[in-house]
Amino acid sequence: MPVCAFIGCYSGSKKIKNSNTKVHIYRFPKDSHMRAQWFEQIQKGSKETVNINFETAAVCSLHFPSSSYENKTRAQNMLNYTPIRGRKLNLMQYH
């Protein structure tokens, strides 16, 4: 499992025994504009230069506000259904 690209965040690391299993790992988007936004957020939190391989890097769900996720459909809410892969990011609302 990939480790989060944010400096100091070890979500996804096998070395952490008490890891939060509810943390989801998201790969960087293919869209260059969205990649730039994600990278900018990572740079803001770091005091050093960050080098990222966008093909293999990932960001964990701890770094996304709740408004960044798509809402469940009405049918999913009525059936109390939660998708197996967790909540889906709405990449257009990330800030």
How do the helices and strands line up, and which of them pair or pack?
Elements: E1 25-27, H1 32-44, E2 58-60, H2 74-78
Antiparallel strand pairs: 1-2
Give an account of the 3D structure.
- The protein has 95 residues and is α+β, with helices and mostly antiparallel strands.
- 19% of the residues lie in helices and 6% in strands.
- The protein is elongated.
- The two termini are 25 Å apart.
Strand order of the largest sheet: 1-2
**Spatial extent as radius of gyration:** 15 Å
Based on secondary structure, the structural category is alpha+beta
Q: Uncertain segments of ≥5 residues (pLDDT<50)? A: none
* Anisotropy-based shape: elongated
Fraction of residues in helix: 10-25%
State the separation between the terminal residues, measured CA to CA: 25 Å
Number of strands: 2
SSE string, helices as H and strands as E: EHEH
Quote the beta fraction: 5-15%
- Largest sheet descriptor: 2 strands, antiparallel
Write down the overall mean pLDDT: 76
- What's the number of helices? 2
Quick tags:
95 residues; alpha+beta; two-stranded antiparallel ribbon; 2 strands
Short description, anyone?
The chain is an alpha+beta fold and 95 residues long. It has helices spanning 32-44, 74-78; strands at residues 25-27, 58-60.
